[in-house]
Queue: 2 jobs
Job 1
Amino acid sequence: MKLAFCGNDNPAAYNISAGVLRNVCFVDALNLVPHVFLLFITFPILFIGWGSQSSKVQIHHNTWLHFPGHNLRWILTFTLLFVHVCEIAEGIVSDAQMKSRHLHLFLPAIIGFVAATTSIVYYHNIETSNFPKLLLALFLYWVMAFVAKTIKLVRYCQEGVTFSQLRFCITGIMVILYGLLMAVEINVIRVRRYVFSMNPQKVKPPEDLQDLGVRFLQPFVNLLSKATYWWMNTLIISAHKKPIDLKAIGKLPIAMRALTNYVCLKEAYEEQKKKVANQPNRNPSIWLAMYRAFGRPILLSSTFRYLADLLGFAGPLCISGIVQGFQNTSQDNTTTIEKDQSDSYLSSQDFLGNAYVLAVLLFLALILQRTFLQASYYVTTETGINLRGALLAMIYNKILRLSTSNLSMGEMTLGQINNLVAIETNQLMWFLFLCPNLWAMPVQIIMGVILLYNLLGESALVGAAVIVLLAPIQYFIATKLAEAQKSTLDYSTERLKKTNEILKGIKLLKLYAWEHIFCTSVEETRMKEFTSLKTFALYTSLSIFMNAAIPMAAVLATFVTYAYTTDKKLQPAQAFASLSLFHILVTPLFLLSTVVRFAVKAIISVQKLNEFLLSDEIGGDSWRDGCSSVAYESCKKHTGFHPKAINRKQPLRYQLESYEQSSRRQPRSLEIDDIAIKVSNGYFSWGSGLATLSNINIRIPTGQMTMIVGQVGCGKSSLLLAILGEMQTLEGKVHWSNRNRYSVAYAAQKPWLLNATVEENITCGSPFNKQRYKTVTDACSLQPDIDLLPFGDQTEIGERGINLSGGQRQRICVARALYQNTNIVFLDDPFSALDIHLSDHLMQEGILKFLQEDKRTLVLVTHKLQYLPHADWIIAMKDGMVLREGTLKDIQNKDVELYEHWKTLMNRQDQELEKDMEADQTSLERKTLRRAMYPRESKAQLEDEDEEEEEEEDEDDNMSTVMRLRTKMPWKTCWRYLTSGGFFLLFLMIFSKLLKHSVIVAIDYWLARWTSLDEKHKEDETYYVARFSLLCGAGIVLCLITSLTVEWMGLTAAKNLHHNLLNKIILGPIRFFDMTPLGLILNRFSADTNIIDQHIPPTLESLTRSTLLCLSAIGIISYATPWFLVALVPLGIAFYFIQKYFRVASKDLQELDDSTQLPLLCHFSETAEGLTTIRAFRHEARFKQRMLELTDTNNIAYLFLSAANRWLEVRTDYLGACIVLTAAVASIKEGPKSGFVGLGLLYALTITNYLNWVVRNLADLEVQMGAVKKVNSFLNMESENYDGTLDASQIPKDWPQEGEIKIEDLCVRYENNLKPVLKHVKAYIKPGQKVGICGRTGSGKSSLSLAFFRMVDIFDGRIVIDGIDISKLPLHTLRSRLSIILQDPVLFSGSIRFNLDPECKCTDDRLWEALEIAQLKNLVKSLPGGLDAMVTEGGENFSVGQRQLFCLARAFVRKSSILIMDEATASIDMATENILQKVVMTAFADRTVVTIAHRVSQILDASIVLVFSDGVLAECDTASNLLLKEDGLFTTLVKTHK
């Protein structure tokens, strides 16, 4: 056929006798001109012009100066493109009805489509290079196109073409669009004045884009990039090269920062407050405030949601149209009528009857629907994040103003505040995410039911009724799920507590061979937890089952009703359109239960928030509101008293005299400089209305030391807090001299540390001054402690850091107060946790020297009366009142009784000092710290091992291997997980899954066959209905079975993994616990176990379900139209790359989100704990700033994570739409039976829903498998060898009876790759001897005690006890027959009876006897319950000395003939130590006792002394003999320790 523009079958086509413009063909040709003009002008500029231009413009993102009307232009252009597509289609369909090709029907439209696309590309380039003059070309194009189309429209009107003809409508719409685009262009000229004007407008890009740190570009990119998240590509692809870190995601744009949103919400909330101000019983509404601040984006999101839902119904309608079209063509194969050209106008009816047109429309509808849906999700996510940021800032600001009494009186516990932050804000955020569903769902359901009714009549209502009636059951299951989760949580908390105790006391458990008793106790709790996990799993599987079964039940009810109530045969078009509608209906109904649950939770959360926001605030003292902050410098030096050198050794009289002289010298008239703080007639309360402090009249002199003394609980600390304004002032006034306010350094009684480095804790926001810092750390004796830390003063301490002892924490807090450059320092009992050496040093160096030199006013609360002579002013308190105030001399003269009372107390304290001098508490604390630090080096090593894959990688750490590991799914771990549930269950799961999906496919296949029946086979209907019902029933049953098997398998796997982990850890060698930080092991039992218990099974279920659905869909489509397989290849490749890139990026972003959440929560809880300190220091602003930074960091991570999810979903949705298009086109081409076409299309539509779930679940599973991998890494650890070579029968029942020990050439090491710690030790200990072992730190003393219990590797030599070589004994037997008392007393939570005898072997008399020997009988008798009295965790309700005595009683209960004491007296006072020594000598007189001495003085009366040096036995003899050697090691040790 020859081609011709106007067709060659009509000679009149080229006739212009009636005028040029009356010729159709010529008008169409005229329409080509503008398009060709645009292409000619723009192409050279697009390809050539940019290079020279863009270099002038320095914007770091290649964006984004949006011209006025930017978004409108994009929307109009997209509409124009859509209309062009319709025009092309209309032209082609019309052309198909002609005898020959008529190019003028569709060619101008095609060129127009190209020109419109070019126009938007051209516009985008001009915009990004900010060169508006070039927009003139576009302006000319719009004008020409508008004119050409108008001519065409006018001509149609003249010919009498009406609205019923499609071509007329299309032309009309185009005229309007070109007109609007022209208007947009004129507006740009008007605003930017780039032509016809001398001074064009200069514009700068938005502030965010000038900041290089902002990487989140969603608000700034153009519409297309916004809709497809195109700007995310660089980030997601770069994740392959290097992991995404916080630097890569940058800062939040200003509009999304917590501060911006806080201001919005705060204003709205204040407005609500004003409204209800004069109505006492009404609370301001947070809901209205939230709507005020965030209502607009929610409305926008809801609009998107409505559009998406309405477009969703295009699917079923198009399917019905296509299938219907097939039926019609197969029924009337009438020949197509040749039409002549004059009648070539199509009506819309004919146009939509074309199957290809429907296929393209379906494709476009899907693309649009998915774009709107993702846009709706994105907007709600962004708003939710903004809301959360605003709420967190609001809560934080409130915390900083909370009245202290609220916190201390328990109205607002720390737990409640943490819940507000961690739970309630997230509940509200999630509610906001699901919010648009609330009003979109009813519309969707109503529309769906109306369409169904149209298709099937009354029987559709039956199906709808089934769905609606089953919905409440969904809600019921959802509530039950929440309950089950709560009870599981309670049990797992208890289990963790027990596990924690085991890990803390693991050394003792191993030495006493009690591991199994404690292990059983954990297993019991785990079984309880497991029972509630079973309930949880049951409800989860029921929920999944309901989801899958409801649509089946509805379809069954509908079609069976239809078959028996109507005479008409069910048509394929009806059947498949209604199936598709049922699928659409189920989603909102399933979501409804979730949304309702979240709405209920959100309402409760808002109530809690309101209560919190309306709770009492701290009193607004006059100085709190003062704005005139005094510069620190002016506070530093001020006139006060002359510096006095105060020496502890000076007589008291002299000091008092010098004080009186100096005070006489200063005239009293300058009252303001004299008195720093004055309280007059003060009554203060803790919020109860009852005065805690009453009638307070005190003054605190400037530049001097004021001491506040009194008994415990007399209100000393309260007085400090009252002065700081933390208490409620009932009456009276606190007057500060004006230069002192704004600068108070305060060290609270309970030390409060930040989660930061030691240095940051001390400087606490002040500028760092090296000299000052050194002086302060020396004064507080912190240097030795800092030296022990792995990174010196850059080591993290606090909750998340290293745990320091009480004394170390207190000294850091005092150092913080001293370091601050403030006029006034308040120290609240700084000596309470310090021993005498440190207290003296601190007093001398820190207080008398450092503070007095700086002339700072000091208020010191203390119990140590020996420091009274140093005080310039003393305030004595009693029962919340001031007893006396004045100098020591005044008190001595005026109140002799009090002075004498103090004197007796001081004498008593002095006697205690003598004792104290011996027990050096500090060195002990340092020792503990060193022990805590020892595992640190190995921690890093262990984490590295954790990271490595199972396959050992080559040393060359080249990027490609690392990246390969990052992109690889951990299949090996998955297989381990699946098999740990048992092979039978695994087989059952796979089999039932496959069977279920086969049945589901069979149902739809049967439906296709049933509906494709001819009218003649009407009598077979009953047979088809019966088979259909059977298949549906089987499908419903199988749904239940599969969901149960997956959960059951997951539970079994979780049970086995936890059981193996616990047993492996408990039987591990002691070295493992020294090397591995406790937190790391606990994490396996907490977070990782939780993931394995609750998260992996549902993910696995969802993953298998969506994968099998997608596979069965592809199978069905390929069966219906084999050509589809060809198109599948490129789609498959695209899908593979999308999921590969997404998984890596998603994992990184998930980790960032998790890791940025913890610091935020910690910051909130640490602020609430240290409120008084923060307020005293006036550091609220700094802490607020920190909170805003942490919130923004967490929010940006979460925002990027949700943007990455949108990125994935848009791409998989578009792929799904392509699959639908190819399936539709392929089936139209083949034109087989209409039933199977419907089936193919129905399945193609479901793919779009499930493709992104496959990838999301894969990514989730990959992250969750990390937990299994970590648990597995512990399962590969070697256990101790518990079996011995001797049988139980060969060991005497009462071994060891004598207690004779032979050590023969003993060599010991901790691990076979480490150096020996004991070398060739030979010794003989007679039965009943008392042996002392001593030596310097690290000489191998303790290693010997561990060797008796085979806790270390004896690689040469042997130890023989009572004739049996201990290496031949089973470990359990050996350890259960010896006794040991360790240096750190360990008690477990439980009864006293359980602590002494967990195996329950002994009688009560034996236990009482043991307690009597340990001198604890009276103490235990006085406790409620006696032997059954409870011991709290770690034995916190007993003193250290008492705990050590309990350990002695425990050793005695065991009645072993050998007792080993490993530095047992190191952590107790002298008195207890004397008791211990006496007991050992009497109660253990006939037993062999080996004492490892921490002080040599303990073993001077031992019958034999072994002295170790560097792992070698250096000396061995009686103490008296060893002392005769002048230069012996023992003599040296005795001299240095005395």
Note: The CA atoms of residues 5 and 104 lie 5 Å apart.
Job 2
Amino acid sequence: MTQHRQGFVSYEEHTGLASYKSCPCPVMGHSSAHHIAGNMWKAFLCCLFVATVAAVPAWEPNKQYVYTVEGRALTGLHQLANQYTGILVKAKLAIEPKTTQELRGKLFAAQFAHVNMVMPEGCCQDIADDYPKWQPLPWDNKPFELKLNNGLIQNLTVSDSSNEWQTNMLKGILSPLQVNVQGMNIIRDRQNSLPVANSSNAVFRAMEATITGKCEVVYDISPLPKIVVQQQPELAPLSDLENDNIFDVTKNLNFLNCKERSALHFGFTGLDDFEPGQNKMGEFLSHSSFNRAIISGTFSKFTIQSSVTINKVLVSPEMYNNQQGIIASRVNLTIVSIEEPENIPAPENPRNAGDLVYRYKAFADETPQRTKSDKAFYVDRDSSSSSSSSSSSSEENAPNSSSSSSSSSSEEETRKPRMSEHMKRSSSKFSNMNENERPAFHMSRQNARFRRSAKRQVTFAENQQSSDIGRRSVIPESSSKDEFQMRPQNEEATTIPLPPFLMDLEWSAVNDPSRMNPVESVIKLAYQINSDMQNASSIPEQNTLAKFIIMTRLVRIMNREELSELTKKLFVPEPVFQNLSRTSFNNGWATWKSFRDAVAEAGTLPALLTISEWIRDNKIAGTEAVAVIAALPRASLVPTPEYLDAFFELSTDPKVKKQNSLNSIVLLSFSNLLRQVAVDHVSAHDNYPVHIWGWMVPKRFPQLTKNYIPHLGRLLNEAINEGDSRQIQVSIGALGNVGHPSILPIFEPYLEGTRNASKFQRFLMVSALDNLASVHSKEAAAVLLKLYQNTGESHEIRCLAVSLLMKTDPSASMLQRMAEFTNTDPDPQVTSMVQSAILSAAKLQDPPNWQLANNAKAAVNLLKPNIPDLSFSQTFMKSRMAEDLDLAYEEFISYIGSSDSLFPSSLFASVTRNMGGSRNEHSSIATMWSSVKEALNYFEQKFENNRRQNKNQSSRRASSWPQWNTDELESLLKIIRDKAEQVEGNMQFRFAGAQKFFPFDKNWMDRIPKLVKQFSQRFSQSNAFNNVKLYNPVRLTLAFPNALGLPSIYTLEAPSLLQSTGEFRLRSQPDLSKGSDDTVQIPDFLNVTTDLNLVFSMKKMSKIGFLAPFENARYIAGLERNLLVNIPLRASVNLDFENYHVDATLELLDSSQYHKLLQWNSLPYTTRHDILTMNPASQDSNAKVIHVRPSKWFNKTVGQQTTGIAFTIMAQTEEEFIDLQWLLQSLQSHDVKSRAHYFWASRSIKFTDMSVSHDPTLSTAKTVRFTAAYDDNTEADPQYEAFMADFVEYDEDETNGKPKKKQWNRSMYAPRQILWNEDDNYNPANPSSTKSPDSYIRRQEFLAKVSAVAASASAAVLDVSVQFEGETEAVFTATAAKASSLFDGSSSSLLFISAKPAQLSSDSQRFQTFLSANVSMPQVPSMDLLEALEFNPNSSMTARLDMNNGTNTQWTVILKGNMEQSLEFRQAVAQSPLAQECQYQMNHLGNNLLSACRNAIETASRLDDHTFTLKYKNIPTPVLRKIYSVYTVIRHLLYPYFSENVLPWNPPQNEVQINVKMNENSNALSVNMRAPIMDVQFTDIRLSPLESSLFRLNPNTKALERVRKQFSPLFSQPSCVVDGTAAVTFNNRTYPLNLGKCWHVMMMDVPKEPAFRTESQRPQSSNLAVLVRNNNFGLKKDVQVILGNNMIELSPQSSDLSKFVQVSVNDRPLRLWPNKNTNVYAEGMLIAQAFRMQNGGVQLNLPYYYLKLAYDSERVLLQASNKYRDEVRGLCGAFNGDPFSDFKTPQNCIVKNPSAFAATYAITDETCDEPTQVLKKNSRLEPCVQNKVYFIDVISQQKSMNANKRGFEMFNSANDSSSSSSSSSSSSESESRSESGSNSSSSSSSSSESDETAKSSKKPANPSVPASCTSHRTKVVAEGHEICFSMRPLPECSSRCRPADKQKKAIKFHCLVKGPTAQHWQKMVKKGVNPDFSKKAAHKEISVSIPTSCLID
């Protein structure tokens, strides 16, 4: 062999023809032209000879090769059990080579057999030939013809009468003969070892066509040892072991790299690099194809002895299961003989069947006629294949590609990156295209919500030519025109080449009415479904939901005419709802609804047209029509342009426009579908069968940007012009759903402020960029980043921009920029949003979010170090994977804090499920409001409450006490009220692919009373309802051929039923049905009576298998899971709002009947299913359940003895272990949220059946009566006092069951009887009055007892009882009461529980439990640190638990505890930096209540050392064992901190001693416990911040307050302080303050002006004001509290150092006592509660005004409710969360000087001192800054790269003047050429602005002669504290010119406050630059003189 240079392969070596080196192809040399021409002819003849000899390596002409064919296709859940179903095939194959390029053959003696059996050895197990029942395969035995190309099968020709399934099976049988040992169609690879003629081994990659597609094949060729052939002669039956060389040729298919792919798919989303049928799809499917051929001879001439192809598909049935199923297929060809030919004839009426690739076709005799325009829909046969963009294809699509190439280019293909050069070019030019040239598609980041890995784009093929340039086409010409299915046309049915109904014409039952009539079949199924629904308990057994799926499939194949016929037969009009009973709904009602929902789920064009016709004919309307339309985006099967046009036409139908809700859902659903099909490229590829039909819409889809989007834009503009808020919101939502960059120009004028829109509407436009952020992340990120960076924008929009930026895969550098900016960002809301977003992103752990997590980690340490307040805006991202299951979920929660409410103004939450690697947004919810407070206030105005009105009226009675009322204060201060936001809002839901959108505005809220009235009128009498909804939220279909040429099919569906039927009646007092149309009178009493049958059922059906078209059969290994929830309930509920009482009576409907209430089962099975039957597959007669082992049964009846209502729990399972470990493993697989998201997910697919049923035969009770009552001591109850004076009640004697008369009087409430002694048996929780259920007396007794222990307390009691009535009676009662002191931490609690079961037994006994607990805590100093450090805060508690089980035995537990502060802790607090800072402020500044002091005081009162003694007696042993079991669990959980000493010395008896000690930082605690049998110690148990807040006991704070403060330290208890020399605002801003002798408004309630107010409507008045001033005694202060027309005055009692204060109410002194509350009433209403503090100060609680005040003569502390947010004025600031806006004057100016700010709130009357009056007068000179929005250029248009052209004057140094001038000229020329050649997308306004800027930058050639006397300059006018700029450049005369004439014009100016920004622009104008202010807001019109013309001077 000739040696060649390394890395160079000769032609002979490459072709395997080294033996023919005697005739080599010549190499060009130095010779004459004649000699060269001669050599060329010789070379041509030589190469022709070589090609002729090498053409037939495997087939010798004039011979007949006979092979036996053995095949099988089986499917099963093999990892569960080796039970399979499928077919066996055997036949004979004869091949006769006719010429070197042509083979003829026939397949004969074909037979097949069914298999459905257990195969212990697996799917490859040998099956005896006589076991199955063989039957003839319906084969026509007609000949076929093969065309070869270099020995490889290139084309198949069959008889025209051959069915398509016969052709595909033939291709499958012939595919094993595709043996490439000469290395044809090589794919270049460094690892290739190419075959040569005399070699014996090779490894290479090649492109090859087989039944599964034209894909990459990896060949391994090696010699086969003859000993193997000797032992296995079937491998090479005709080989000569002595003389023949035998080779083992194996090949594996790489389905990732295919040029042609035969696959069909529907409904897939969120899979990375998804292509149907590839080797790996997510985590749920793997696909492999392996071929082994044994050949004898040489590589140049050989015989195929045997060849076997094995194809396997492994699938997780539900995408997440560990146990998988399999579809296994095998074709084995073994040579039998080589004989003389029998001259097989050519096929009759030959039909070109193309290459060996499987073809999907609906009808074999129909040839699709495609026009030239159809090429717009073409898609590459493998859109993600790397080999599809081969070395030749990339050149072919290039504009200047040559048709010639090297000779090897036809056989060698190069690996390319996944993105083709065509898409790279189109992507790079995308931003330069105008709207009509942009491709409709773009790569999306898929549908997961907060990060996707979008790594691939699907390329577009300009044509379907060959990838071999200048050579024969790989794809036959005949197949190029019909490789796709016929696209659905108009009203015709969609042709779906998949089961169950569409196959070849000759065997399709669609055309065989004797087998199946679709119309009649649908009618039959609809009536069956209706019949099944009559008995909800049997829905799973009847397979009702499977029938619905069958009906939906039938509807899909129907045309419009057939659907219209069905409509006429099945439609039932909705009955008029007036006095209807349940029987009023006839049986046809559910029949019609099942058909209606089947049409909605069909997703075809005829179905859509039918729905449109229903709407126009009023067959469906309102909520029914909304539900149908909402399903269309998810259900659409083939959304072609015709489909979209029909949908769009529906949105413009006048009938639709008249119905607001329907109009909204049509627009939103249409826009959703439009994005999925025409914008989101990944969705368009993954969700629809593009490999069968091509793209759903053409790649250039002008309808999108020329019709659809402009129409939605027009709707938006019209709605804004008309002020229609609802339509505005819907239009914005629809544009956002499209997610195309073309929506940006529509939003641009509103976002940039050039067109008016409310703040909320602009906010909604930004929120609408959500889908744009997913599909076009770069375009969206550019806009969002600008919005975020604009600090002059509202915090709502900036926060939303941050939230959406996290969905655009932000880079590490972007996140670092954002993190760094948190240190200087002036808005805490935005800072909090960025902090939370980056921190939560850094914690993401799932693989799809690794990149985002790593980027976030790079920015975490740059964030501002403070902990954000949870009341501020936040974004949280979390991901979690379920262990051992391919399940995960991703949560995205974002909310935007409100400036006027503690509730967020907007909330966005979504859950993305990940099942088997497929991610899709499962559900989302969003709510947005313009103003939470205004919405709540307006909503409240629509509801009248008599008690509230009485309070309001009493508080507004005339009085003359205040010196000033709030109205006068508002007038004196000249307060300008803020204007409230227009009430707008919406709620959005997305679930199972359907979107629901509910917009709200003022007009909608005005309709609430009328809607309530109509509802009440409708149901004032009993009326029936019947709501049925069938839907299929999961619809996955995947099909690709197996080795036998049969389609392998995987489907997953989850049909669901939601049904609510029954009767309903509503009665109220007053009668709501007779109420006003303006307001709703809240009733005092409400009665609801209903018969309700609520049913939810879901069937999850997974089917794995293949189709046998020759017998209309589908072989299935299936898994079905059924869930049924059935609630048949009769209820009567009485709601007594006036007395806080609820009484409900419940019973089961038809309680004498058997009801299955809950069922869950799992059914694995195998079957052969006849697809033409209308029965579900699992109901087939030959269906076999897959059993693993004998079932374990569980059957138990519960409730019979306890309640009298018996429930039977039945369970049958084949799990191996059912124990605690199994339960723990099941629970560990999910956290709480994961279990909620995947409540149906199960680790096992074994057979399981569980149910809960009501058993009427064992039940002795039928009715359940539930009562609940609440009471408190907030209001006096005279009725109670009178009632208690003489009370007699009969109660049941606990001992003998006889009635006993009780006498009652108030003396029983004496406090002495509430206290108890551990030596007696008295427990105050044991009621002295009655133990009967729902006892008013017991509630009042408990209320009095707890109030007596905790003096001056707020007390409440809750009483709940449940009674089961019938033949037996069971009673369960619980009463709980608690009182908390108003001035310290003391509390008292009582709990009483009584249980009387229906039947007494050992398992069901009567018992009573009594628990009482008292906590005693002192009132600790709260306004002075030194007092707090000296005070002893030690506290104590006692508790007693008694339990009586109905016998004389009673066991008792007594707990006593002391909570103390250790000396070490107190010393640590005193020496802490916080305390030192506080003491400095106290000693040097006279401030005791600034932040440092308040935190130090709170810490100084903390209790850290707790000792408890627990004594017990008579506790039963079983209870002790259970207590020990609980202890062992705690010991296990706290094992790292645990130590134990068993049997200690001298243990306590019958008691447990416990000591709990907190560490200094309160983040760890230690527990020591001494018990009778052991000593236990837990050391330094770590505590989370939340746990620490619970254990930080403090007499001054309650546990709930501490928890609230942990989450929201700023606004959990908003406070304002006026201290000695400083003040702290509600927004926590501290500033110096000197009040003087002048009254200042500390806080005043100033409601906002309504957005819309009629002339007759008066503005809401202020009710509250707090005034403060310095008095004549140094730093001491006077305080006035104005409460409506009442006034409370507080002042120092003396001038000494004493802090005692005096209080007067309306000029009347108020006497106060320590430790006792004093109630202050005015006009019969409680307006204040006052008590004296330890230091002599006073604390006021104003419950009606939600305000607390503490005053110690020198300082004032206010704690206000969040209801006052953004509606207060005064020294306490704006109370809106923004410290920058705190210094807001009464005239809405924000000033910088704190003294000037304070002076603006001074009341300058005759008592005011002169310095303060002067300061107030001077405060008017302070610069005034308005808090408003500053608009910027958000959506940038394309601008010149030249700075001069963008308005900047460039300065060059003298040395560089010439060079820079030339370079500038050169660059300008180059730039000009570049710009002229680009496709600019700039708007006209942008172009004109650029032109003006360019003109202004030009200079005259000769400076001594002006080129023009007139120029244009921006006019600058200075007025007061503002500098104003003309919005357009104005004409002016140039230098050396003068105006000929002037005229005055009113010109619009944009004004800026004097400052750096205004001065910057002023300087730029002086330099000759004309800034563009055209898009800014016009603030003023100023009259200026403008020259009409100019003359040279």
Note: The mean pLDDT is 80.
